[in-house]
């Protein structure tokens, strides 16, 4: 998974030398684009924004060397919770009976840990605490623990996808059939810790991969509070890039206000705007960056309410929409419209009494089809929406 480049890379580009990552003129913009790649990205429509034409090199080539360098950069920064600490889980700290829900809640309380990663840590602890004496018993216990976690929040797409990917990554190996039980259990624990380590590093990998798409003087529109998008912007700010950010307020839970506070603390120029002002401000925007609750088989995303209409406005005004999402959010779902989503509701306070007989829409998320998205930044590489299904096949098989 770590050595594979994005699926949309032209095979012929692999024979070309790729300069190392870096800021300014030494970054991706200095790549020599092949004639075939230039033909591929020529824009026959002169009415399309000059942004796409001047930034064509940034979309043209993403090589395996580039991905490897991003991962190497991540390796220099130790994760906030190294595998050694992950092995010493909350359940092992005392002599109480192991509960996968308690373990999950323990990890979920960490502010920088995504819900899916908390589930991965909890399932790894379930393997270590298991008293099963056969592989069949252990797999049944692990499957039960996974189902318990998924049933604790049936509306969380990333939680469900993280559990499913963990089960396939850890248990699907023929080598387990030829080992004694203790050796097989040790192998499962080793694979669980490796999967957890990969998940912890995913955010930093995505942040490094996205840096050549953020240029000095650009204006970025963000929606909602996404940890991975915040990491992308933090990395850009720490590398000395000059940019400004427009934050939607993110009603009803004010996630945009929270993100704007984080960015202001970093010294990034930020402007807060009401959600309905997106079209008004879009002509000042160079790109849109959003996170995702889940990435579905079509290449579309499920994210907080309002993402769809922002993507529609950006598409209509020829502005790129970038998605930053970890691979454990790739889900085997294929919604056809907004009503295909499992219901997820949140309370809404309008600040005034609601008249009797007036219905209130409380849906918390929407579905953005792939045709309104430009690129997805993932720990698997930089992907176009059309190849997400290929990556899902690789992940699940």
Number of strands: 10
Poorly predicted tracts of residues: 1-43, 47-61
Helix content: 40-55%
Structural class: alpha/beta
User: Count the helices. How many?
Assistant: 16
Radius of gyration: 22 Å
Beta percentage is: 5-15%
The largest beta-sheet arranges its strands as: 3-2-1-4-7-9-10
Structure characterization notes:
The chain starts with 34 loop residues before the first helix and ends with a helix. Helix 9 (135-152) runs antiparallel to helix 10. With 397 residues, it is of the alpha/beta class. Strand 2 (243-248), helix 13 and strand 3 form a beta-alpha-beta unit. It contains 16 helices and ten strands. The strands form two sheets. Strands 3-2-1-4-7-9-10 form a seven-stranded mixed beta sheet, sandwiched between helices. A three-stranded antiparallel beta sheet has the order 5-6-8. Helices cover 43% and strands 10% of the residues.
Give the gist of this structure:
This protein is an alpha/beta fold and 397 residues long.
SSE inventory with pairings:
Layout: H1 35-41, H2 50-54, H3 56-60, H4 64-75, H5 83-87, H6 90-93, H7 100-108, H8 115-129, H9 135-152, H10 157-171, H11 181-209, E1 218-222, H12 227-238, E2 243-248, H13 255-265, E3 270-273, H14 278-281, E4 287-290, E5 294-295, E6 301-304, H15 307-316, E7 321-324, E8 365-368, E9 375-378, E10 381-383, H16 388-396
Parallel strand pairs: 1-2, 1-4, 2-3, 4-7, 7-9
Antiparallel strand pairs: 5-6, 6-8, 9-10
Helix pairs in contact: 4-11, 7-8, 8-9, 8-10, 8-11, 9-10, 10-11, 11-12
